[in-house]
Design goal:
Blueprint (H helix, E strand, L loop, with lengths): L10 E8 L5 H7 L3 H13 L5 E5 L3 E8 L2 H10 L5 H7 L1 E4 L1 H11 L11 H15 L5 H20 L9 H12 L8 E4 L3 H14 L4 E4 L3 H11 L2 E3 L4 H7 L2 E4 L19 E5 L16 E5 H4 L5 H6 L3 H49 L5 H24 L5 H11 L8
Parallel strand pairs: 5-6, 5-8, 6-7, 8-9, 9-10
Antiparallel strand pairs: 1-3, 1-4, 2-3
Helix pairs in contact: 5-7, 6-7, 7-14, 8-9, 14-15
Length: 418
Amino acid sequence: MKDYHISRHSSFYTIGLNYKKADAELRGRFSMEDTQMISLLEDAKEQGIDGLLATSTCNRTELHGFAQHPFQLIKLLCQHTQGTVEEFQEVAYVYKNNDAIGHLFKVGTGLDSQILGDFEIISQIKQSFNRSKKLGIANPFIERLCNSVIQASKRIKNETEISSGATSVAFASVQYIMKNVPEISEKNILLFGTGKIGRNTCENLIKHTKNPHITLINRTRGKAEQIAGKFNLDVKDFGDLQTEIRKSDVLVVATGAQSPTISKELIYTKKPLLILDLSIPKNVADDVSELENVTTIHLDHLSQMTDETLERRKQFIPHAEAIIEDIKEEFIQWLETRKFAPVIKALKKKLKTMKEEEMDYQSKKQSDFNEEQADLISNRIIQKITKQFANHLKDDTVDADTSLALIKKVFQLELDSQ
């Protein structure tokens, strides 16, 4: 993309891994919290990268940005996570330029989500952009691309039914509970962790199960109390976790820690206990499933459910893809205008120099020369000439590269260096 005058680096890349090839454990090794992403972006900026997004969700970790080579981004990711280059290469994908642009559109509009139509990712992309913008590593290309993806997401939501009903991991977990736990409205449900997924799960539980017996526990009690107050739920201290698990029929874990928060030693139950782990990396130890009466389900299992609602959404994929193509085409057109902007700028500068030389000559030759009037008229003529050239270059039937070369040759233009 060196001809577009958008970055000191010539190519735009997406590097990452997701649920398609990387299991929960491996995704956990490459997951990043906010502080890690900030540190990564700061390091990237020091290395001369001028446009970069970092996103990390329960089912993917990706970097989108300009670099000398994709390995520059891969190295950054591995330096700021627990994953290695070798592990990354086994499951990763690397997209370049138009393919990278297309991939971000698919991700941001829910077409590449673990659950089709899950639009929670778009808020993550907004947060990623705001983070990069605040740190001064979001160039005009990144800003325009993010805005285009957000626009596509809104149109798909409004113009298709691909997101009809609830479409998130949080909803899938509640759907699973309702199908597999009889008389759910009478059961004791414990929600451990009140981050974004925890909050969404809580709202879905209340809406769909009509269960008043929901207890919240969070390491920071205040966060749990904020949600509990909204729905009139019980809150217990972190120290009461073992006791509350013993009382529960369903335990939903959404703690987002880097290592398991639910161990075998915490659980002692004589009745059936369903545990849903909605965390990346896994926050329920693997050996918990060995316990009698205990069933553990991870979010990767939930996303594989193909109910009638999800099947119905698939018919709207072509319409969603058409919307993406429409907005992506607008983005590419904007990008094309970046290619000839420096030539138009240089042409305007050259014409102004010609104007100033001619006005200087005429002012010396004519005693009654009206410099103010001549300046006004000539500036309007320059504006019309440059606009005519710009419109010519925007024409789809024109070979812009040939025209740019001709304009530069005819007017002997010297472009400002990047």
